[in-house]
Amino acid sequence: MTRDSRYDILFEPLAIGPVTAKNRFYQVPHCNGGGYRDPSAAAEMRGIKSQGGWGVIFTEQCEIHHTSEIAPFIELRLWDDADIPMIAKMANKMKEHGALAGIQLAYSGINGPNLYSKEIPLAPSAMPIRTFTNDPVQARALDKQDIKDLRRWFVNAAKRCRAAGFDLICLYGAHGFGIFQHFLSTATNQRTDEYGGNLKNRARFVREVVADVREAVGDQMGITLRLSLDEMIGDLGFANSEVRDFIEMHKDLPDLWDLAHGAWEDCSGPSRFKEEAAQFELVDGIKALTSIPVVGVGRFTSPDVMAKMIKSGTLDFIGCARPSIADPFLPKKIEDGRIEDIRECIGCNICITGDMTMSISRCTQNPTFMEEWRKGWHPEIMNPKGASDKVLVVGSGPAGLEAARACAERGYDVALAEADNMLGGRVSRERHLPGLSAWGRVADYREYQLLDLSRINSASCSRLTRFSFKFDGRHSSYC
Ligand SMILES: Cc1cc2nc3c(=O)[nH]c(=O)nc-3n(C[C@H](O)[C@H](O)[C@H](O)COP(=O)(O)O)c2cc1C
Ligand code: SF4
Predict the structure, then answer these.
(1) 0.85 exceeded by pTM
(2) What CATH number has the domain bearing residue 26?
(3) In sequence order, which ranges of 193-239 are alpha helices (DSSP H)?
(4) Are residues 314 and 412 in the same domain?
(5) Pocket residues for ligand 1 (CB within 6 Å)?
(6) What pLDDT digit, counting tens, does each position of 408-446 carry?
(7) Is 442 touching ligand 2 by the criterion CB < 6 Å?
(8) Which residue in 67, 105, 226, 348 is a FRET match for 264, CA 20 to 30 A apart?
């Protein structure tokens, strides 16, 4: 099949500074619970996305210096040259099928408790640090020498990224996590020198770092700046109106504006509270303030919504974190005209739970996520079947449906027994709860795939007993 011409716009190349993305599918930075502990697993996972057709693929946040680390959370580290081979592995995997490889550089400032390095955290202003783990630690205000050092650490990190083979650097200033937001927001910047006070002064640090990094690597690498569209604390922080002022004042400061939202819980809002494209109003009109590309997020899984975002001039790139986890082959499926095969993210945020528990992330829709390396699992390719021919799956809950789908895909004749009068088990009931209709995608996707695979015999309304089923060639019957 070929792609629907309505989606052609999603496949137009676009430059980001000195490099060009082959299409508009932009996997924004996302953690995976693997980070520096499981770099091979993280690299393989990104490599699968490269196969899946993404134009841009980013790492998760990567600590640039030991004076700001976020233990016990497990992200990436690029503290010195010894870390280069680990991240080079990721860059190589990302680029295998033509994606641009991006890395997100993070100096966590007021969010870095330094539980491992025991360094005193450095931030624009001296204040208690803000972490998920509520650590009783106080940050020291950066003095002028510290600021010079920090600028140099960013340049060193950028050079290491170039050596590792990356094409893009994202400077992290969103979700309350990155030092750039800490300087930009009056909530965290109470300085009275040239780095504090009015917006122009608060923006001085980011201007300096972008200029430093551009001078060091800007001829070969694109520089993106990730900001939150609104800090979500009204005028006490970096609100949407001030974000717009900042972008208007610094039209083409980076090579691309990467616009996230609020704190992490705002940005990755679950489907129960946030619809697809939920950030539309906050991002609408920003493109007109700048001459460089804009990427935005919003749990985009519908190619129609994606195309509309670009055609309407709202975004240039479609940013996806969770949709790229749920279906690493999303771009390829749109390109191949296989829309109905897209495994849509359901917005359950189980992927985040894995990261927050410092364990490997899991995905409700994509069981292969983060097992691509250790177990060799692939989201689209199944092992061939073994010696037996027939499989009986008892129960059509999420696990039963996936088992039936996987076995049918592998070539078994599958009988699926379900006592209820609909498929989906718990999901068939949960999907009717307020705000949870997207969870029905777990059943819908698999039901459609099973119908498409001729090797499945589904028996609804059949309460199975030891004696009540039999296989008859490729058919099963129940009583
Ligand atoms: C598991 C997970 C980890 C994330 N880690 C990061 C991160 O390291 N850096 C970052 O800027 N954003 C991170 N995010 C936020 C995403 O980049 C994105 O902005 C957000 O999830 C909204 O996009 P989506 O609706 O496409 O998921 C993460 C999101 C998820 C789901
Ligand atoms: S389906 Fe759930 S676990 Fe998977 S990416 Fe979406 S929100 Fe995360």
Answers:
(1) yes
(2) 3.20.20.70
(3) 199-202, 204-217
(4) no
(5) 28-31, 60-61, 104, 172, 174, 226, 260, 267-268, 297-299, 320-323, 351-352, 355, 361
(6) 999 999 999 988 888 999 999 999 999 999 999 999 999
(7) no
(8) 67
